[in-house]
Amino acid sequence: MLVSRAAAGAAACAGVVALVLAGCSAGGPEPAPHTWSPPPTGAAFDYQLGGAYEPAAGVTVVARDRTAQPAGLGYDICYVNGFQTQPAESGAFAAAHPDLVVQTDDGPLADPGWPDELLLDTSTAAKRSALLDVVGPWIRGCAASGFDAVEVDNLDSWTRSQGHLTADDNAALAVEYARVAHGAGLAVAQKNTAELAGRLRAAGYDFAVAESCEVYDECTAYTDQYPVVLDVEYTDELGADGFAEACSRGGSSSRLVRVLRDHDLLTPDDEGHAHAACPASAA
Questions:
Q1: Same domain assignment for residues 8 and 70
Q2: Same domain, 16 and 70
Q3: Reading across the β-sheet that carries 149-153, which strands appear in turn?
Q4: What is the pLDDT, as a whole number, of residue 250?
Q5: How many domains does the chain have?
Q6: Domain containing 23: what range?
Q7: Tens of pLDDT along 184-205?
């Protein structure tokens, strides 16, 4: 997947490469369908949004930011923030697209937990279409970089929107993000928001990436719907002892795979880095 298959197909049918166009003409064979799949069940994984590094031995599923390169060890997940701005991009995004961030009397609305992230405005079909024009190329870029799947973050932004957004607004855009991902040959993961698991699974989402589902007692909401659930627990919430306890009572399975990380998702070169997985015997 060195180039977006959706883009390549469109270019071919538009007549860009004339000698390969016989299959796009009337009566020619149909283009091959795009294919995608969730991560393999039971595979160890790492969550590397704070910076890319060589994963521990045995890790074959790795999630990284869309600006990083895939690890190339088996299955790679691309992180895209599709409902809020990224901290370093918030000012530029709000300046370029003032109508696509939630506006209040005090200016653009920030996430109270992450005050340098602004909430994207999903409140109308027109705004969702405009956001898809911005975020869609990021998703297709994940495919072009060689990722296998995409996770789209902050699906639950409506809960922090002071009533400006609704669950229906965000779910409608989430469905469009899945359509773009599948069109590019990527699987798509639901990120958090347990209450929408059934709805998004029915809409075509392939697996889930859940943060702290053990802490919030939400894991079964995902495993009831998805064939693979990747659970990220944090040292400052569950802790090493709590993680070990979860592992000892079957906290990992072929469908639910856990990892314990530091909350800042630091690299091994940084003080405070933590990474642990349930022992293979608990899987």
A1: no
A2: no
A3: 45-47, 61-65, 75-81, 149-153, 187-191, 207-211, 229-234, 256-261, 275-277
A4: 65
A5: 2
A6: 1-33
A7: 999 999 999 999 999 999 999 9
